[in-house]
Amino acid sequence: MEGDFIRINKWLLPLSWLYGLAVRVRNALFDLGVLKSESFDVPVISVGNITVGGTGKTPHVEYLIDLLRHKCRVAVLSRGYKRKTRGYVVADSTATASTIGDEPYQMKHKFPDVTVAVDRDRRHGIRRLTEDKSADGIDVVLLDDAFQHRYVKPGINILLVDYHRLIIYDKLLPAGRLREQLSGKNRADIVIITKCPADLKPMEFRVITKAMDLYPYQHLYFTRLDYGDLHPLAGGRPLGIETLRKQKHIVLLTGIASPKQMMLDLAPLCPDIRPLTFADHHNFTAEDANRINRTFEATPAPRLIVTTEKDAARLAGLKELTDEVRKAIYVLPVHIRFMLEQEDNFNENIIGYVRKNSRNSILAKAKDDNKPKDSDNTGHRTGTISFRNN
Q1: Above 90 in pLDDT, residue 4?
Q2: Has residue 271 got a pLDDT over 90?
Q3: Is the overall model pTM greater than 0.90, yes or no?
Q4: CA dihedral 162, 270, 63, 222 (to 10 degrees)
Q5: Straight-line distance from the first to the last Cα atom of the chain, in angstroms, rounded to the nearest whole number
Q6: Among 267, 264, 244, 256, which Cα is nearest to 196's?
Q7: pLDDT per position as a tens digit, 223-254
Q8: Does residue 131 have a pLDDT over 90?
Q9: Which helix (H) or strand (E) covers residue 124, if one does?
Q10: Is the preceding omega at residue 302 within 30 degrees of 0, hence cis?
Q11: Are the CB atoms for 51 and 167 separated by under 8 Å?
């Protein structure tokens, strides 16, 4: 398939079989009820994947935040990968990428009025969010990267699948990048194929839809990446993305799991893109700064360094960057766009779920206002229900 970046290490397949056996036993214990999944009275929406590497979780969580934040009180709960703190932490004005992780920091920076918390134990984190007075009555919890965290039973389980690494063609770790068997997708209420090319052909949509082999209760969506104006890391006026056409040379500086779609998207704008790639969530060091400085010096003018919002949080404090390099770094915001005119349907499904399960939000008030006056409703709180039953 076009854009397929899957690589299978066949010599590691025996280890994948052993790994798969352990995962299968764990999932069976949850399915049999030996290991317990906990439900909560607050609506919970989980966004995650079953692969190692980026599938676009952060921009999809940010889409949900933006969809719901004006209608109800939203909280985001993440693990806070590679943070230097432990336990439950609620982000405040002093939060940094070191204290809560780069992705939660990015979300808090973009949506300062939204509650963002981190906790490795998602059950404990949800309890703290719903009991903590500082959270001021949370109406919905968005779980970031929690598809495998089966100790929590979300009302809506969203599974993200990278178009370039379709799980139907991948293998279990360590031969491939699957965290669990393909059957794990059956737990999803919504499946989103992410990072699709903008020019994806109708036949490809049909081929992928058939190949994913989803159940009737599962909803399939397709999204692509979209980009905003470039913002200088050192401060100043933003640049429109079309400005890249005037820059004949770009250093694409990334510390994310899968930057290939970004390279493909930017290629039509700039003839010379020089990738400078680091591992996902990479903590930049003085040695890395020197490498960035040297790469920029070796790049002909006119030139720019383009990086992601997630990387910008870790680059900002890198003192070893030269002044010239720091002024040349521009941050490229990433958003998602639904394809096939699916956006309204997706929005209605999410808002409908929160409306049916929340009693404190504007959505719930609108629901109550529309009820007949002679309703026999006794005021009992609606429990969290599965999206499959909506």
Answers
A1: no
A2: no
A3: no
A4: -40
A5: 35
A6: 264
A7: 999 999 999 998 888 988 888 888 789 999 99
A8: no
A9: helix 122-131
A10: yes
A11: yes
The amino acid occupying position 262 is M
Give the whole-angstrom CA distance, residue 263 versus residue 219: 29
C-alpha 222/C-alpha 342 separation (Å) is 8
pLDDT of residue 17: 96
Q: Which two structure tokens, joined as six digits, stand for 331?
A: 């941050």
Question: Is residue 250 helix, strand or coil?
Answer: strand
Structure-block tokens of residue 29: 């214990």
Give the separation between CA 116 and CA 129, rounded to whole angstroms: 9
Rounded-to-integer distance, Cα 26 and Cα 14, Å? 19
Angstrom distance (rounded) from CA 222 to CA 336: 10
Is pLDDT at 375 greater than 90 in this prediction? no
Residue 110's Cβ-count burial label (10 Å; 0-12, 13-18, 19+) is: middle
The Cβ-side half-sphere exposure at 246, using a 13 Å CA radius, reads 5
Query: Lowest mean pLDDT: which of 7-21, 184-198, 209-223, 266-280?
Result: 266-280
For 61-211, where are the E strands, in sequence order? 74-78, 89-90, 115-118, 140-144, 156-162, 190-194
| SS3 of residue 308 by DSSP | strand
Cα separation, 247 vs 303, in Å, equals 6
The pLDDT value given to residue 365:
55
Compute the distance between CA of residue 37 and CA of residue 24 in angstroms, rounded to an integer: 16
